[in-house]
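Example 3.
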Amino acid sequence: MTEPTRIPPRSGAAFILKRGELLTIIDPEGEQVADLASFSLEDPNEAISNGRTIDYASKLYFTTGDEIYSNRSNVMWTIMRDDVGTHDFLLTPCSAEMFRKLYGEEEPHRGCFGNLAAALAPHGVSPDAIPVAFNVFMNVPVDGKTGRISVDPPKSKPGDRFTLRAEMDLIIGLTACSAGQSNNFRYKPIDYLIHS
Amino acid sequence: MTEPTRIPPRSGAAFILKRGELLTIIDPEGEQVADLASFSLEDPNEAISNGRTIDYASKLYFTTGDEIYSNRSNVMWTIMRDDVGTHDFLLTPCSAEMFRKLYGEEEPHRGCFGNLAAALAPHGVSPDAIPVAFNVFMNVPVDGKTGRISVDPPKSKPGDRFTLRAEMDLIIGLTACSAGQSNNFRYKPIDYLIHS
């Protein structure tokens, strides 16, 4: 099998995936998050949608066998392998505004949001069009009674994998998460493989 | 006070609200939901964002005193009064695709999504740009352990009110919900008032 491509810590990448191809996201060191955004190659106004996906599955958590929908109610992804079982599909990518608001940082990093915006711009995706991403390996416990959420260290161990099959031709944005809360304050890379 | 404007059952409306104005949404008969979508009047690419709002508040449920954010991290709304305390900010507006997928309806209603799309089109908002709405009075219990969600009858009683203050000039889309699951299968109107 080909060597995986590495996304360095606190950065992002964009690339094309054709229908039927597999994307495997690997956490090489453990306890790291990858934000996954996706858009139809044919018309980037069709984007990954947590609202449609949660509605159609009547659940917040997704794993092997589950489908991820677009805002036009088409299946974008099928999850094929999940070594971890804990991911988030509620929160927007971390951003300069988020680091400023939640953590009072005065010179904040541009975050996954800024990294996705920069990587996706050449593909015709504007920052405003970046939706809630599927946050692979992100651990966001929810208290159903109070509605409180928290961001805990991921449960992923070194080498853990998450594989999805593209159900349409896609533009992908993928990051090695920039938020300390998401990786136990040890900013780390993410690896990925495109395969059949 | 002026008489409220009525949104008939299974329909929607769009209108402008200026910064500082109040929007009161009234459930005249009880057990009905209103989907609230909003966009900056200055640039409709700035839209209400559940992902940003949930992230900044670290919670899923919102009530009096809480702020609702846009996808550009600006405050769009402050909640001023809430007679009910149970609303949803997870699910996309009901749609023909949803009625088909979840309930097997062969000739489905266009739903809140279709109603919002029609009402918002003259304001320059495309269907693809309609995000997860703030679903006033919608009752969506969440099981934090399993991630399962359900759609239960609203807790609103006849005359219950929900008031928000516009924190910027806004284009509003508002519906009387078309999904039977959201109103105990008794499709009903929604009333609203714009006031100071």
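Residues 48 and 70 of chain B are 4 Å apart (CA to CA). Chain B has a mean pLDDT of 95.
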